[in-house]
Design a protein that fits this description.
Helix content: 40-55%
InterPro entries: HAMP_dom (IPR003660), HATPase_C_sf (IPR036890), HATPase_dom (IPR003594), His_kinase_dom (IPR005467), HisK_dim/P_dom (IPR003661), HisK_dim/P_sf (IPR036097), sCache_3 (IPR033463), Sensor-like_sf (IPR029151)
Strand order of the largest sheet: 8-7-11-10-9
Pfam families: HATPase_c, HisKA, sCache_3_3
Strand content: 15-25%
Subcellular location: Cell inner membrane; Cell membrane
Largest sheet: 5 strands, antiparallel
Number of strands: 18
Number of helices: 16
Transmembrane segments: 20-43
Coiled coil: 379-438
Structural class: alpha+beta
Radius of gyration: 58 Å
Length: 677
């Protein structure tokens, strides 16, 4: 990768290599176009030549079959003219059929039969008239096992072929058959000589045709020339190997591809193209085999493996590519060597330019060229320009130093005033926030203190009268003891409420100190305040207090946070519904206690997603009567306690605010608590 980037940089920046690229690109493009045309032409020519060759091979194989049939007829003529045959005819009761069957092997045929003219009815109707007219017939025919046994008892066994992957044998046979009519002295048909060969499993025959079609040295190395005889779409005689790689076995009993079968067997056309033959691709040619009725009953095939031809073609293309690459390398080397002396002065000028760019004092000087050379003139002008530029830079540098001193003096005083202003603005902001909070708490404290005082006075009167009534009634007081106890319980409840209001409204003193205590009592006190301050009694406040850990907290501020969160939840539910306050221990992943966790859950309107990031900002509120300071102050208090506050809300379903309070407050958090107060 580094080498590629290096040469890419050279091509972009160095004239020598750009010239090399400019001169090489036309050569490369020309050679690539020529190579592409060569590949296209040779591919087309090679393919057409291959198809023409396999078509010629098919013609040779077809002629070989015709020669075979002519020899077959010649054998029948030799039998008819033989002395033994004539002697058999002169016998008083000639057993000519048995004699003929015994002489089949001698004359090189698989079956031989001689029968009288009156047995002509055993032949198909299309063959009778030509024989009566004295015409010999040689043709291909598909026979059943019964028909073959009628000619020779061994033919059906010899013709049987196991069909691969079909679990059944093929019992029919493909026959090359010849009929020879013999006439008496009066010109009447007297005898019919019937003979032929069975083409099923005739491996010697297809091997002999293959040797004629594909002589040694006519095919590429490692290629395989093959010949096949088909009965319908079944290979009945072939030298196509079962394993094309190792050239082992014969694919007898396999079927031809569907595409070839449709073209040759169904349409009766020749096929010359590449075809998938059993387990490999071959350059193939197929020709239909017809019977005496001109019906297609089989095929003759010749072909050879495609891959060796492709391999040889690819080898030629690789050799051509190597030649082109060597040509490019040689031409590039010559261009590079020829341009070296020309671009050495240019490279020296470029080197000086780079040094000057890095503030180094360098000059081009003499290039060893004629003084009137364009590059020599350019070098002198460039050196002169560098001298002038150096003088101007010195003057500019001196002026810049003077200006920099003046700017430093002015900016120093400006920085001091800016820092002082920023500090004052920050103090003003903190003071304003503190004043707003103190004003709110002071008003609340004054209000709650007045309410508590006004409630305590009538409560004391009620309590005194109850005690007086109990004293006056004496023993009769037992009749209303339950009612009096109920009144006393309500008076205690009023006292607890007023006591909590007074503690909530006070600032400073013991209640503002940081103490180590449980959170559950503080939660219960906040719930008491909230219940007593609700305008309606349609809100059900449920507490689930399970926290056991003690935490270091400011009781007054935690009470303020809890009351604020609960009142927000009640407002979100429009003063009706269910509010759940929970507490539990805050544990880490290993189960070790970190502090306490308090959650306040309402089932109100919820908070929109776009507002979740704004609810803790000062003065942000969605209520017309709200100030927007409640949650901001709450977050400040919780942060001062060393904890966190998180919110989980779904619009229309409700919200859950969760406080995480640590068991120990850090020293820096204690300082922040005092600021929040």
């Amino acid at each position: 990768m580094k080498l590629v980037n290096k040469w890419r940089q050279r091509l972009r920046t160095m004239v020598r290599y750009r010239l090399l690229a400019l001169t090489s690109v036309p050569i490369i493009l020309t050679l690539l176009v020529l190579m592409a045309l060569t590949v296209y032409w040779t591919l087309a020519y090679t393919w057409q030549s291959a198809l023409a060759g396999v078509r010629a091979d098919l013609a040779v194989a077809s002629n070989s079959m015709e020669v075979l049939q002519r020899e077959q007829r010649s054998q029948l003529h030799a039998i008819a003219d033989s002395f033994d045959f004539q002697n058999q005819l002169r016998e008083p009761t000639p057993d000519i059929l048995s004699w003929a069957q015994s002489r089949a092997d001698k004359y090189g045929v698989d079956f031989l039969a001689v029968y009288a003219a009156n047995d002509i009815e055993r032949l198909p109707l299309a063959l009778r008239q030509p024989l009566l007219e004295g015409r010999e017939r040689t043709f291909f025919q598909v026979m059943s096992a019964v028909e073959m046994d009628a000619l020779a008892s061994h033919l059906s066994d010899q013709a049987e072929i196991p069909l691969r992957n079909e679990n059944r044998p093929e019992t029919r046979g493909l026959i090359s058959r010849s009929l020879l009519p013999l006439f008496d002295e009066n010109g009447n048909l007297e005898w019919i000589v019937d003979g032929g060969i069975l083409l099923n499993n005739s491996t010697d025959l297809v091997d002999e045709i293959r040797d004629l079609v594909f002589p040694v040295g006519t095919l590429p190395e490692s290629s395989v020339g093959t010949v096949t005889l088909f009965m319908d779409d079944i290979r009945v005689s072939t030298n196509v190997p079962l394993d094309s790689s190792n050239k082992q076995g014969r694919a007898i009993g396999t079927r031809v591809s569907d595409e070839v079968r449709e073209t040759v067997l169904l349409k009766g056309d020749d096929w010359v193209n590449r075809a998938y033959v059993y387990n490999a691709w071959y350059i193939s040619a197929y020709k239909p085999i017809r019977d005496f009725n001109n019906n297609v009953i089989g095929m003759l095939y010749t072909g050879y493996l495609e891959w060796p031809l492709i391999s040889q073609y690819l080898t030629n293309i690789v050799e051509l590519g190597i030649g082109v690459l060597l040509t490019l390398l040689v031409s590039g080397f010559l261009v590079h060597r020829g341009a070296k002396d020309l671009f050495r002065p240019i490279e020296k000028i470029h080197r000086v330019v780079r040094l000057v760019r890095f503030d180094q004092d360098a000059r081009i000087g003499k290039l060893g060229l004629d003084p009137e050379h364009e590059l020599a003139i350019l070098a002198r002008q460039f050196d002169t320009m560098l001298d002038q530029l150096k003088q101007q830079n010195e003057a500019i540098r001196q002026n810049a130093l003077e200006l920099e001193d003046k700017v430093k003096q002015r900016t120093a005083s400006l920085h001091e005033k800016t820092a002082l202003l920023e500090q004052n603005i920050k103090l003003l902001e903190q003071t304003r926030n503190k004043l707003l909070l103190n004003e709110k708490l002071a008003a609340l404290g004054e209000l709650t203190a007045g309410i508590a005082h006004e409630i305590n006075n009538p409560t004391a009167v009620i309590l005194g009268n109850i005690e007086l009534m109990e004293y006056e009634l004496g023993r009769n007081a037992d009749l209303v003891s339950e009612e009096m106890e109920a009144v006393l319980e309500q008076i205690d409840r009023i006292r607890n409420i007023t006591r909590s209001l007074l503690q909530y409204s006070r600032q400073g003193g013991v209640q503002d100190q940081i103490t180590w205590q449980h959170v559950n009592p503080v939660i219960e006190e906040s719930v008491t305040l909230v219940r007593s301050g609700m305008k309606k009694h349609d809100v059900e406040v449920i507490t689930e207090l399970e926290a056991k850990c003690s935490v270091e907290i400011n009781r007054h501020q935690l009470l303020q946070v809890l009351v604020n969160l609960q009142m927000n939840g009640i407002h979100a539910m429009n003063d009706e519904g269910k509010l759940i306050v929970r507490s539990e221990d805050w544990l880490d992943e290993s189960g070790n206690p970190l502090g306490a966790k308090i959650s306040v859950q309402d089932f109100g309107c919820g908070i929109a997603n776009e507002n979740l990031t704004k609810i803790f900002d000062p003065f942000f509120t969605t209520r017309r009567s709200g100030t927007g300071l409640g949650l901001s102050v709450t977050q400040g208090i919780v942060s001062g306690l060393g904890g966190e506050i998180k919110v989980d809300s779904e619009l229309g379903e409700g919200s859950i605010f969760t406080l995480y309070l640590r068991d120990k407050i850090q020293s820096d958090n204690i300082a922040s608590l005092k600021v929040v107060e």
